[in-house]
Amino acid sequence: MENLKVWLKPEVVWFIVGIILMLMEMAVPGLVIIFFGIGAIVVSLICMVASPSLTVQLIIFIVVSSLSLALLRSWFKTRFFSSTDGMTGDPTVLDEFTGKTAVAETAILPGMPGRVEFKGTHWKAESDQEIAAGEVVVVLEKDNITLKVTKSSSK
What we know:
With 155 residues, the chain is α+β, with helices and mostly antiparallel strands. It has two domains: 2-81, no CATH class; 91-151, CATH 2.40.50.140. Helix content is 49%, strand content 19%. It contains five helices and five strands; from the N terminus they run H-H-H-H-H-E-E-E-E-E. Strands 1-2-3-5-4 form a five-stranded mixed barrel. Helix 3 (33-49) crosses helix 4. The chain is rod-shaped, with a radius of gyration of 25 Å. The N and C termini lie far apart (79 Å).
């Protein structure tokens, strides 16, 4: 029974909740949950040096989580998830697509996307030109899960 009392101390509970929330950030995209984990860890630290009531603990949790979310999220996103050119993600991924060739699996018409095969994977593709199925195309850019392509100048 004494062992259970140790695990039910507010500082231990808040710490475990904080760690769980931070780990959940790895599974859920969006860079939001981690700030609630930070709030829980801060409350845990405060509970180690003082004995605030549950109401005060919840207020601290909400205030710290909200402030850290509002003040630090954009900094975290630019620090960890953007490249120097303003594109989101790793800049080497852009080089993996741009300028490379693919093969049109279906016809691609302006305003009517088609499909291309690039590195053994099938991609949705858009173009400003009419491209017939089987033609070789050059990837101009990657927009989420769509490749912007143009006809290849080499036959």
